[in-house]
UniProtKB/TrEMBL annotation, chains A, B:
Main enzyme class: lyase
Species this chain originates from: Actinophytocola algeriensis
Prephenate dehydratase domain ranges (all copies): 3-180
Top-rank taxon: Bacteria
Protein's name according to its UniProt entry: Prephenate dehydratase
Gene: pheA
Domain ACT stretches: 195-272
Length: 306, 306
């Protein structure tokens, strides 16, 4: 049976995202770390991996991005965006006033300090290796309550004392569903393409040139991050997300231009946008425009300039 | 006496950075939060504020940057870069094997999971509101040891069991020393300028245009971050750090160009780079080049084109 490896254990936000990916024909398989979830797909033990790439509350996103930038390439076929809202789980019959200790992943605890100060100010805060591990800690009697992903309540025999816990109302975390390189998802008219590019950062303007290559083709950037590369002084990695699908000529053309300008470009996938907003394309950049232009240039090269 | 407000309590990395700023004529005053440290300077209760702006291990950097982007402007006069290396503090006479619980700020715990798994795998991990609060927790008997900034050992009557703890060898955290707008630090030949710009993100290419304005003037970008703005759909904030001082004509000229292109530009300071590397300037961008060009254009405007 087909399977999705996710950053486990059972009951984490990554499992919640894997469920939201809505592939009922796939078994969900927890892995201990993000690199192990990626390795499961790279080595063929799993078909897909579901890992956090933005605002994770259970681990460092930079480590995920760095893991995608090296080793065997993987490509995203979907993105999943989840609200950062936690549940408070405790043993059945527990009252809020009974709780003297509360556990979660350190990143998750950091995101609910306001709520804890208001509702559980006297509880000791315990750091767990994941939000789900915190739930296990409650079952084992190591702590009185756990701050978890909502899905944790489906796995552990605990009561939901509170749900929708969030200091910041509109915080979201973003995941990618990745596979080994193969057939790409078909364009939907609401697509995003992700790449990681390595370029000489000390050369003034290289990033301006890269973004101009995108802008000239009407490509709308939705995210940019720069990171210095360890052990490669003067080189930077740029993680870029932009509107469009590599099946579109303007996107293919832009990627070719970046390939000429950068030391290295890795394609991380073209996949439907979670929010379903239409791809912005600018004008004069349709496939028909590219075809007409290419056909004209061919004529010119053949001496048929008329 | 002049004072520096920092993100406290005593013994945090922010205090370590404030000490490293090397202003022995300034008293260091702890504040409970980053916004309170900034408010102390905005309201004139302190002369300077020392706050984390990159890879903080004791709070969210994004909150700091957002706090600098609004309210009364503050400008940086120095940056301080510290290695992310922790000390393990416990009551005198404690052996590593005796420790059954270890506390720190959630972000700090997240950064030493490898070390803890190797050396204190059986210790319960407790989340504290800061690394320094964890040290206080040891004194109070709430936990057996604390993962702290090195400077915490100077404040609390605890023993340093281990120092230089780091899962990643070359991780650093960066702080800015901020004041109310006033005289800027003189250019040193190794300067950085920080700004936050608000622009319409949906307009394809606006960031390419902004970076091209910098590149055309030989300005080397050292950091870029994009963040969507809450409640202002379609607008993004860009945090940009680049080489150079606003006293240089090419930097002044670039800032003026960004001011024309963006909805809003806030100057966050021109200050000496912590690493002391010379400012990269490209060619044909010296103040003399600007002066000669301006003088020529004036002549043209006066009809003296010869």
């Amino acid at each position: 049976m087909a399977s999705i490896a996710y950053f486990g254990p059972q009951g984490t936000f990554s499992e919640q995202a894997a469920l939201a990916a809505n592939r009922p024909d796939h078994t969900l398989v927890p892995e201990a770390t993000v690199p192990e979830a990626l390795a499961a797909v790279r080595h063929g033990h799993a078909d897909l991996a579901c890992v956090p790439v933005e605002n994770s509350v259970e681990g460092a996103v930079s480590a995920t991005m760095d893991a995608l930038a090296v080793d065997e390439p993987l490509v995203a076929i979907a993105e999943i965006v989840l609200p950062v809202r936690f549940s408070l789980l405790a043993k059945p019959g527990t009252e809020l006033g009974d709780i003297t200790s509360v556990a979660s992943h350190p990143h998750a605890l950091a995101q609910v300090q306001g709520w804890l100060a208001k509702h559980l100010s006297h509880a000791t805060q315990l750091a767990a290796t994941s939000t789900a591990a915190a739930a296990v800690g409650v079952l084992d009697g190591q702590c009185g309550a756990a701050i978890t992903a909502p899905v944790a309540a489906d796995h552990y025999d605990l009561e939901v004392l509170e749900t929708g816990i969030a200091d910041v109302d509109d915080a979201v975390t973003r995941f990618l569903l990745l596979q080994r390189p193969g057939a790409l998802p078909a364009p939907t008219g609401s697509d995003r393409t992700s790449i990681v590019a390595v370029a000489a950062y000390q050369r003034t303007g290289v990033l301006a040139e890269m973004l101009t290559e995108l802008a000239l083709r009407g490509i709308n950037l939705s995210r940019i991050e720069s990171r210095p590369m360890k052990g490669r002084l003067g080189e930077y990695r740029f993680y870029l997300d932009f509107d469009g699908h590599v099946a579109e000529q303007r996107i293919a053309d832009a990627l070719a231009a970046l390939h000429r300008r950068c030391h290295e470009v890795r394609f991380l996938g073209s996949y439907p946008k979670a929010d379903g907003t239409p791809t912005l394309a600018g004008t004069d950049n349709a496939d028909a425009d590219y075809a007409a232009a290419a056909s004209w240039v061919t004529k010119v090269q053949q001496g048929r300039t008329g």
